[in-house]
């Protein structure tokens, strides 16, 4: 009985810490949004200077990859067509470390996933004109079978670095879809009227082949009309995707994706080559936790670290 009471106290204390942080940051209305809509918007999280540094770092990576200079304001489909995901950005520039630790989004992620949650990946969905929309999906889609748990297993923070609108290739969200606890069907997604999957695959093999396809929006999908520096945070069950960009220039974002401790991260952290990044945050224990410092698994012949195992999460919040 004493053991049960101690465990309950631990869970209550973790919940209290999480809710105290939510209250201190005036985020209570955002919790209502997360519970009812499956996502919430935080305005003006990033400063103009931070946005500029993040954009410059992403552009450097894209230009290294493509071998050509990209003007984010005037780029055409010939410069960069459609969307490409740019992964593993955390270690490219210290600005991404700073964004990871932004207090308000991290507080909401902690509410969804607990204090021991991990950074799964950090990348940019870099979108030029044309191409195809990003199909509506749930972030639980890979490896988590339906019916999904009503408790969030993963969560996402999507920072706008350029203006979002439907014609500019905005993030698309489907309010309330987290309650369905499954992935969308083909009939609930973007559809190219009159074209089969084989038709689309054949068209995609030609540069710009998808640019003139007319897409029908998913039922209930809403374009996130938000400004640079705003962030959208969502429950892992929530359906989302991206509209095709219909205007010149590029849409830039930063997506920070998180998961509970027992789930495999998308990106590999803890590489000794990046220890200097962790060392920069020696006074922020949460940074090391996000990169897996408290994960007890993955041992070799030395066997388990029982001290770490004793610190495993004991409830929804930790």
Could you describe the 3D structure shown?
The protein is of the alpha+beta class and 318 residues long. It has one domain (22-309): q2cbj1_9rhob like domain (Jelly Rolls, Sandwich), CATH 2.60.120.620. Helices cover 29% and strands 17% of the residues. It has nine helices and twelve strands. A six-stranded antiparallel β-sheet has the order 1-10-5-12-3-2, with helices on one face. The longest helix has 23 residues, at 2-24.
Ordered list of secondary-structure elements with their pairings:
Blueprint: H1 2-24, H2 28-36, E1 39-42, H3 48-66, E2 83-86, H4 94-100, H5 103-113, E3 118-127, E4 134-137, E5 154-160, E6 171-173, E7 191-192, H6 197-204, E8 215-216, E9 222-223, E10 231-235, E11 240-242, E12 253-259, H7 275-279, H8 285-290, H9 306-309
Antiparallel strand pairs: 1-10, 2-3, 3-12, 4-11, 5-10, 5-12, 6-9, 6-11, 7-8
């Amino acid at each position: 009985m004493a053991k049960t009471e101690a465990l309950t106290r631990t869970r209550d204390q973790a919940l209290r810490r999480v809710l105290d942080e939510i209250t201190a940051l005036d985020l209570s209305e955002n919790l209502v949004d997360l519970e009812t809509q499956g996502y919430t918007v935080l305005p003006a999280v990033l400063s103009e200077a931070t946005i500029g540094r993040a954009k410059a770092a992403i552009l450097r990576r894209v230009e290294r990859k493509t071998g050509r200079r990209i003007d984010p304001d005037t780029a055409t489909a010939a410069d960069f067509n459609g969307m490409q995901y740019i992964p593993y950005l955390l270690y490219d520039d210290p600005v991404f470390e700073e964004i990871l630790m932004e207090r308000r989004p991290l507080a909401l992620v902690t509410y969804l996933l607990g204090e021991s949650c991990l950074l799964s990946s950090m990348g940019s969905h870099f979108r030029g004109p044309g191409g195809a929309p990003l199909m509506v999906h749930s972030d639980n889609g890979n490896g988590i079978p339906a019916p999904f748990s009503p408790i969030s297993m993963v969560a996402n923070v999507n920072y706008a670095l350029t203006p979002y609108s439907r014609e500019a290739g905005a993030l698309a969200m489907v309010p309330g879809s987290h309650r369905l606890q499954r992935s969308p069907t083909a009939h609930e997604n973007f559809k190219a009227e009159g074209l089969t999957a084989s038709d689309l695959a054949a068209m995609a093999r030609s540069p710009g082949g998808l640019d003139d396809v007319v897409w029908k929006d998913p039922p209930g999908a809403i374009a996130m009309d938000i400004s640079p520096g705003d962030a959208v945070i969502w429950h892992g069950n929530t359906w989302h995707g991206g509209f095709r960009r219909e205007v010149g220039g590029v849409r830039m974002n930063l997506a920070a994706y998180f998961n509970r401790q027992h789930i495999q991260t998308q990106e590999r952290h803890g590489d000794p080559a990046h220890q200097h990044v962790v060392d920069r945050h020696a006074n922020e224990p949460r940074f090391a936790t996000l990169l897996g410092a408290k994960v007890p698994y993955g041992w070799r012949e030395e066997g388990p670290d029982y001290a770490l195992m004793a610190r495993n999460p004991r409830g929804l919040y930790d």
